[in-house]
Amino acid sequence: MTFSLPIRLSKSKFLSGLQCTKRLYYEVHTPELAGEIDPERQAIMNMGTEIGEIARRRFPHGILVTETYRQTSAALRRTTELVEDQTTSVIFEGAFEWQGTLVRADILERVEHDTWKLIEVKSTAKVKPIHIHDLAVQAEVLLGAGIQLVGFGLMHLNTRYVYEGGPLDLEALFIIEDLTEVVMERAANVHKQLEEMRQILRAPFPPSIAPDGHCHTPYACPFWANCTKEKPDRWIYHLPGSRQTFKDLEAQGIETIDEIPAGFNLTVLQQRMKDHVEWISPEFSNIMQSVVYPVHHLDFEMFMPAIPPYPGTRPYRPIPIQWSNHIEHENGSVLHDAYLCTEPKDPREEVAKSIIATVGDTGTICVYSENERHILLSLAEAFPLLKDDLLKIVERLWDLFAIIQQHYYHPNFHGSLSIKAVLPALVPHMAYGDLSVQNGAMASVVYRQMAFEEPDLIERSRMASELRDYCARDTLGMLTLRHVLQEKAAAISASSWENNIE
Ligand code: SF4
What we know:
Elements: E1 9-10, H1 11-19, H2 21-29, H3 39-56, E2 63-64, H4 72-84, E3 90-98, E4 101-112, E5 115-121, H5 129-144, E6 148-157, H6 170-173, E7 174-178, H7 180-202, H8 224-227, H9 243-251, H10 268-275, E8 279-280, H11 284-288, E9 295-303, E10 319-328, E11 334-340, H12 348-359, E12 365-367, H13 371-382, H14 387-395, E13 397-399, H15 400-407, E14 408-409, H16 419-426, H17 440-452, H18 457-501
Iron/sulfur cluster binds next to helix 2 and helix 8.
């Protein structure tokens, strides 16, 4: 069977086809094989829509084509009217079609009587290669449809912009980079690329393409689970580190980690994954016993808004919103302390003051990543009066992630040292599966809904409780993990002491 009907493509389908023609084939013929959009991906898409709306405010005389993606004919008609109306200076979301390819243009700005500049809006902090392709396919369609384009720009966020309060300074918040030359060069290939894609789409079967690194670049492919369902547990793709290792092994016909020949050049972590045994460094025991009581177990959660919400903040700059601290005293007693900002307000000063209070001035502060250090340093920069106290806290940090990275490995880590992999491996009853919020990205999404989307009181309270549970699990997990590792360290000390007296 072949598909003989005319195949209409769109900008997003074209970009999917550039990433992988099998992905394009699935999107057109078997979209039901795609995995569900996770909340994190949905949040990124929502943010893109929000940024697009804010970007339009920089062109106050622009007119929006309100017809939706399902009202193609009406959208095309309305766009034609606006193009022909010489009083229209800027069109948002104009619809254009040429030889079966449909695009919606974010911003089309009239330069002179019949000439236009096309501007694509992205929520990123810089131009990426995919953006050039994005503009190139629009160039192909708009030029084909008779629009005289004399310029192409990409409008993205300026991460150096510091919000000073009041209305956003849209001139400073966005940067428009001129990409005319490179887009015109790239556009010369688009017609051929579209034809090749249509050819593939007419075939009775999807192209035979093996999953590998291309499936996640520039976007995570929604068909990953479908394409990898037959792969073995110890597939070489799961090796941590450079994708080049995967490619080199694949080129040699090696599929599982256990088939990797001795002597193949692997990183330390890759080698540990291949060895598949528990490994402990000689220094591990001393390091695990080096903590000073009371031992704090500290974790921050944060969100990174694209549009800076508070004076003194910048696009995508992390803003701490909560912390949890499990405090273990030398007598074995454990106290829990926590903070969560539930209001739509700048939480940074409260976070800074409450963190100084909770950790006091004695004891090791156990963390799991460099994140806490970065947050404390950014708070120290933002609040000069608290700087000395915050820098003293930084000096007390004891990073369990770095310790594990250098001194311990367990086969159940499966090559990942993230706490989401390490905790279930060593403390199975403390995995995250029973929680509504299971990772930092989800925490950020729930926080945004709780603080900014005005849920009712019951919803707000539920969200706050989910966030507290998640952050507390991280710090209680850290404490339990530290105990498990300390017991291993004590067992090593005992056995080496016994060996010495034999
Ligand atoms: S998972 Fe990879 S190989 Fe499969 S369709 Fe997606 S990009 Fe193509």
